[in-house]
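tokens incoming
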């Protein structure tokens, strides 16, 4: 049974104030659904305990990162919390070649650059359910000290006003529900006419099949 027309996959951008849960959602999508692939960003940040080079990030020196910018190898880049982060063009190209949705876990500045340079992308702002949940998640993660947690919370106040610039807003209250909402959005986006592969060809083929059915009905 045909469930949909063959479609061009869309890059999926997840942005949110730090601690909201976008990385958790991004990894869950990739693990649960074969058509999603994580876009490994380049960064000048030092690896945290448990992070693997080439899996969580490509960890680079500032010089190596600046060389990527000069060579125009990045689809977007931004300075976030004092470090440089960027999405290599190659991640988007490789996902498109394999027919997969690239999942970009990036900040709101990077999301706006993708909006301008990759019109095909779907931008989702992940919204924290409450200030207390954001505090709990940032402190429970244990990757930042308290002054850094406060700094990220202050930054969150500004980032929230960018939510209106996104295509969708998904509240990350219950994790499974949030993942399911994101998946549903991408499913719906995949059924938009401009994403169908060779729609004129599909229409032509179906028309000629209809002619065949009409002819048979006369026989
Ligand atoms: P971000 O990438 O947005 O900075 P993370 O994905 O690192 O955030 O999540 C921050 C913390 O919150 C992690 O410890 C994660 O396990 C937890 N978390 C994520 N989503 C939820 C949720 N829906 N409910 C409870 N905890 C969550
Ligand atoms: P962290 O250092 O906690 O992993 O990430 C800090 C912030 O940088 C997060 O908001 C994360 O989404 C963002 N980030 C990660 N990769 C990229 C990227 O490639 N580009 C941009 N613009 N931001 C990124």
């Amino acid at each position: 049974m045909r469930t949909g027309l063959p479609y061009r996959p869309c890059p999926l951008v997840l942005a949110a104030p730090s601690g909201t849960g976008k990385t958790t959602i991004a990894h869950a999508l990739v693990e649960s659904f074969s058509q999603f692939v994580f876009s490994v960003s380049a960064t000048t940040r030092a690896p945290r305990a448990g992070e693997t080079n080439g899996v969580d990030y490509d960890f680079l020196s500032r010089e190596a990162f600046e060389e990527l910018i000069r060579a125009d190898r990045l689809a977007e880049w931004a300075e976030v919390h004092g470090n440089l982060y960027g999405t290599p063009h190659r991640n988007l190209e490789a996902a498109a070649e394999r027919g997969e949705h690239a999942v970009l876990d990036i900040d709101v500045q990077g999301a706006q650059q993708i909006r301008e340079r990759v019109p095909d992308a779907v931008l989702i702002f992940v919204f924290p359910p409450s200030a207390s949940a954001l505090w709990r998640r940032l402190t429970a993660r244990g990757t930042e000290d308290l002054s850094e947690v406060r700094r990220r919370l202050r930054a969150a106040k500004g980032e929230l006003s960018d939510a209106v610039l996104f295509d969708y807003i998904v509240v990350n209250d219950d994790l499974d529900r949030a993942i399911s909402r994101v998946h549903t959005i991408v499913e719906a986006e995949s059924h938009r006419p401009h994403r169908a592969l060779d729609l004129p060809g599909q229409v032509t083929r179906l028309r000629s099949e209809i002619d065949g059915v009409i002819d048979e009905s006369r026989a």
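note: The chain has one domain: 12-218.
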